[in-house]
């Protein structure tokens, strides 16, 4: 059981990173971006395609940059038209955008399952009865460092404080002279980059295919709801919890449907017992 808990923490860190991207976009625009997973998926597929021409680390950096640009493109072309629309219209639009990206991936690169080589090697470590791979360890370390770095940026830098203000209260931020339009675009760029990092970290551990990142978004959404839609640290912690729940469910059964049911139960129980999440506020 301990081994499954540890494995869950490793994969949960990547879920948490995607959840942080989801929460950041939601806080900045009040839009549930159901395309958040596939924004990272585009970067993952580009990185995979570039493996034939570039070293793995260079392909990873290009893939993350592409995800950031896709996030910016969505903000420029879609989000600006959705700001004053109803939440349902925005939800449907982002769902459609996510499915369009997924099927675009399928058309360009095929429907077959693919693998991505770990940028961190394939070493195996044994700690007691626990077996860990370098890819899983890297997922936890990289996701943790990115989350810490994001926190420092948002709290310690001038532009980061402006972004934080825009995600906390856009009206007050605008009255304080914060360029809300520019910071909103940056939020989508940063959210796209985080999604790309998450997708690549998970692809180095698991196989992937079109729509796989949409399915991963369900786990990130569960993490965001569990941690609280107003809390970035809560979203990351929620990702760790979801990863543990998933891993424990896998230890009990090999049926994928049961594992997915466990994730949906996390969402349902959170909405029923504590809608604001563990670290969120009721204003969310």
Write the layout of secondary structure elements.
Layout: H1 2-29, H2 36-50, H3 56-82, H4 87-109, E1 124-127, E2 130-133, H5 134-156, H6 158-168, H7 170-175, H8 180-203, H9 212-227, H10 232-252, H11 256-273
Antiparallel strand pairs: 1-2
Helix pairs in contact: 1-5, 1-6, 1-8, 1-9, 1-10, 2-3, 2-4, 2-8, 2-9, 3-8, 5-6, 5-8, 6-8, 9-10, 9-11, 10-11
Number of helices: 11
CATH architect. name = Orthogonal Bundle
Beta fraction: under 5%
Count of the separate structural domains: 1
CATH topology: ABC transporter involved in vitamin B12 uptake, BtuC
Q: List the uncertain runs.
A: none
Q: What is the C-level CATH assignment?
A: Mainly Alpha
Compute the number of strand runs.
2
Inertia-based shape? globular
Q: Roughly how much helix do the residues carry, as a percent range?
A: over 70%
- How are the strands of the largest sheet arranged? 1-2
Spatial separation of the terminal alpha carbons: 35 Å
Radius of gyration: 18 Å
Determine the mean pLDDT.
84
- Please provide the ordered H/E string of secondary-structure elements: HHHHEEHHHHHHH
Which secondary-structure class do the elements indicate?
A: mainly alpha
Q: Main beta sheet: strand number and arrangement?
A: 2 strands, antiparallel
Q: Would you mind describing this structure in some detail?
A:
- The protein has helices spanning 2-29, 36-50, 56-82, 87-109, 134-156, 158-168, 170-175, 180-203, 212-227, 232-252, 256-273; strands at residues 124-127, 130-133.
- By secondary structure, the chain is an all-alpha fold.
- A hairpin with a 2-residue loop joins strand 1 (124-127) and strand 2.
- The model has no long low-confidence stretch (mean pLDDT 84).
């Amino acid at each position: 059981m301990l081994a499954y808990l540890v494995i869950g923490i490793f994969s949960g860190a990547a879920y948490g990173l995607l959840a942080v991207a989801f929460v950041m976009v939601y806080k900045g625009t009040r839009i549930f971006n159901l395309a958040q997973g596939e924004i990272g998926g585009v970067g993952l597929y580009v990185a995979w395609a570039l493996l034939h021409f570039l070293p793995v680390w260079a392909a990873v950096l290009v893939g993350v940059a592409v995800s950031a640009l896709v996030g910016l493109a969505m903000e420029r072309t879609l989000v600006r038209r959705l700001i004053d629309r109803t939440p349902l219209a925005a939800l449907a639009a982002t769902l459609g955008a996510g499915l369009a990206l997924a099927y675009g991936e399928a058309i360009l690169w095929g429907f077959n399952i693919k693998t991505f080589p770990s940028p961190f090697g394939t070493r195996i470590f044994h700690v007691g009865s626990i077996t860990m791979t370098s890819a899983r360890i890297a997922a936890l370390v990289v996701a943790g460092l990115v989350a810490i770095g994001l926190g420092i940026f948002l709290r310690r830098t001038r532009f980061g404080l402006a972004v934080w203000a825009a995600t906390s209260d856009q009206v007050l931020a605008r009255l304080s002279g914060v360029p809300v339009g520019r910071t909103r675009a940056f939020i989508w760029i940063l959210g796209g980059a985080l999604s790309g990092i998450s997708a690549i970290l998970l692809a180095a551990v698991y196989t992937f295919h079109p729509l796989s990142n949409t399915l991963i978004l369900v786990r990130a959404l569960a993490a965001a709801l569990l941690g609280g839609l107003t809390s970035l640290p809560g979203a990351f912690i929620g990702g760790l919890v979801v990863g543990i729940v998933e891993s424990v469910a896998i230890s009990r059964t090999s049926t994928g449907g049961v594992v997915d049911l466990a994730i949906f139960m996390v969402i349902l129980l959170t909405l029923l017992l504590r809608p604001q999440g563990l670290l969120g506020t009721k204003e969310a």
